[in-house]
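Re: the request from the purification team.
They wanted to know what the chain is likely to look like in 3D before they choose a buffer screen. I agreed to run a prediction and write the result into the notebook, where they can find it.
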Amino acid sequence: MLEIIYNRRSTRKFSNRKIDEGLIQQLLKAALCSPSSKNCKPWEFVVVDDPELLSRLSLAKPHGACLLKHAPLAVVVSGDKTKSDIWIEDCSIASIILQLAAEGLELGSCWVQIHRRFHNDDLTADEFIRELLQIPDHLEVLSIVGIGYKANDRAALTDKETDWKKVMRNKYSKVDY
């Protein structure tokens, strides 16, 4: 598991290879097994593999969503605001579990932030996606995770790139770890 964490990098370029349904089921099972506060599991997922819908999702916001146009798969992660006041945290955990599962299955992934982002001056990215995918009002879209076979591999972060200055012990201080 640690190797998966150390090696996972955001993938924004995917090959044209379609993802097998069995792998999609494994990804979804991992996301559905994510921990949540009080085990309320406020998340709901919309799996998108239709190229036309993926292309339209890539327009959800002006920057950062274009990778979805060429991804063979996207999972829209939304949360039920009526189930939990910390749906954002719970859905964030589910989103990263989905990304780690993708890496474990030798797939690439990239998180596309939707919550608190805008499609244009009049419409939020959440509203755009909820309308496009017919997502009910009690759900709010947190993220979209684009998934596919990596077009090229990116090297894992090196130990030199690990910023140990961000870690303190027992109290906040600027002493190196």
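For the purification team: The chain has a mean pLDDT of 95.
Please add any questions underneath this entry.
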